[in-house]
Amino acid sequence: MYIQTSTQEKLNLGIGNYQCNWGIHIAGLYETEAEREEIVMGYLHQGDIDGDLQLYTPVEHSVEDFQHSYSEAYPKCNSHLYNDKHFQVSSAEKLYYPDGTFSTEKMDENLDAFYRESQKTGRRNVRATSDMAWALEKIPGTEHLMVYESRLNYFIPGKPWISLCLYNITKFDGATIMNVLRTHPYTLNGGVLTENPYYQDPDIWLAENERASVLKSLTNMHDTHKEHELFLLMLHLSQRKNIYEIKRTLIEALNSLWPAITFWETSENDQPLTGQTEMDVATIEIATTQHFFGWLSYSYNSSEISPEDHSLVRNAANMTAIIMANLFQSQQRQQELQAQERLRYESYFKTALDKVRLYALTYEPEGTILFCNQYFIEKTGWSHAEIIGRNWFELGASEDQEAHIDAAAFKTAIQDHTLPPHYENRIYTKSGETRYVLWNNLMLYDDQQQVHSITTIGADITDQKMAEKQLREELNEKTTLIKEIHHRVKNNLNVVTSLLNLQKNEITDIESAKNAFEESQRRIITMALVHEDLYQSANLSEIDMSSYVHSLVSRQRELFSAQENVSFNLDIQSVSLDITKAVPIGLIINELLSNACTYAFTEKQEAIISISLREMDAGMCTLKFHDNGRGFPDNFDINDQNSLGLTLVNILTQQIDGSLRYFNNEGATFHIEFPNPEESPNTGAYRLAPYSIASEALTDNLATESPSPLQTRG
User: Fold this and answer.
1) Which residues have C-beta within 8 Å of that of residue 359, sequence separation ≥ 6?
2) Whether residues 487 and 499 fall in one domain
3) What is the DSSP-derived secondary structure letter of residue 2?
4) Range of the domain at 586
5) What residue spans of 626-679 are helical by DSSP H?
6) Is 157 exposed, middle or buried (0-12, 13-18, 19+ CB in 10 A)?
7) pLDDT tens figures, 683-703
8) How far are the Cα atoms of 261, 417, 507 from residue 411, in angstroms, in the given order?
9) Closest Cα partner for 163 from 22, 351, 264?
10) pTM of the predicted protein model
């Protein structure tokens, strides 16, 4: 325990874990030899550990006996004990009265000379203690001992010095002990170090030491037994920490010392005693000049109490008032310090919470908000005045918004001390926005262990919640997409099955079989490329047609025997189509490529195929396919053609809700317009119906037709 006694460095006293500061003068009061030994040994051993210069004057034992006892108790310190630079043990005679007389003047001179010598090589802490029992030997000059003790309070402050003067309160009379208290600013009594309330400044004490003080009057009475008992009582009361207990103990002690007298505490409203007219009643005010603590009353028979007894009781009451006043002032100072400390920590707490990027709130069990930090104000949009005093359970909830907390359940949990340490809920801002917060609760209790407030710290998890929601939506979309892909694969296989079923009827010989397989291969590659682009794309629902068409043309031209004579002009915008448009467009381009490369060009002709895909206004796209070959024959009508390839082109154009035009323009030109809205009306899933009909349409339109070669020109 640290008691600040000055502004100097701290030191460990070695007694009761006390710490104080250098430059202190202590009166050590004890009753038994064991108590004295405990004080001396702990005090000196701590100084030995700290490397202080030790001065000790034993009385109950000789110097040699002390050194022997100390060596046995602390054998590791044996080398220091006999070294004057560390430990100086001398007899009282040698230190205080070498010529047979105690002189305060010589003591002052010797003390000053010793201190100067100890500090020649730099600062050296000096730890001195003496057993003052030598003064009981009636050595000439000991009547001036208290003058010496008072003068030490001029010498010690400001120096690296501590003096512990030991007095046995069972051997010294009350007057001497009272003067000991008046000349020592601190006392060590019962192992407790305290600031001495009876201490007087040396200027005052030295000027007034001939005047009788209250305590001196107390101890100069004729009844030495009562004097001593009251003195011990005052020491006992000075250790109490409750004013009521001090008064109660005083009255019990007085009733014990004077059995024939009845003592009690009187208040302003008490009535005087009745029915005891033969007894006198005296009332003494228990008060100081600044504090009033009530009255002490007692009834007595004048033949059983002397004037000296009255004086003794009066002085006891006065001294008790001083003790209570000191206690009251000490408690008041402690409360003030606690209040200042609380305000300091509250300021630190508020400053810290205003800087963190977390919600911070303190509210009463009923919900009244007592504190909020700056982050709470910034996030909610409410001002400080709009928040403080509002009910936390209702803050921000409008008529069309349910309360963000189940107030009844929350209040019950607070009363039952079952409030969860963590919970998550939403709050509403002033603008009506919903924020999600993860709270950490701390319930604060009063002295009766009742919840007086709840402090809660919250992390805003709104972004996390939105991210989780987006992830769930994306997961649902991708789950649907995977199912749709599987459905598309099944549809593609159905289309392949239908095409193969139709193509088998065209096989009449090995050459026709080879052609049929090559055409089927190109169609399958066309559909496969769509899925290849899909899984390589960040967007699993749309195809970049620029990349797709370039890949398609590159892959398919390798399969045409006349590929070395054909050049391609591709003008493909970066148009994104979903799979319901991309597959049909790919198949259309494949069929037109196959038809053109097979039938459009003569052997000596420089063949050029131009393909363009552009996005027009109003959500429309155009696909233009042109070759510089022989063109369409006269009166050409695609609906009258007995060609599987061109029939596919016609059917697939209808499937994508497109319109088909074809004409000659220095070769054959196909012009297809089809819609491509920015947002699909069926977001997150493909339109299953149109593409699934494709296989049925192929079957209905082609299975009944007589198969014939895809020869439309020449």
Assistant:
1) 372, 373, 375, 376, 379, 437, 439, 456, 457, 458, 459, 460
2) yes
3) B
4) 477-702
5) 644-655
6) middle
7) 333 333 334 334 444 544 443
8) 59, 10, 85
9) 22
10) 0.37
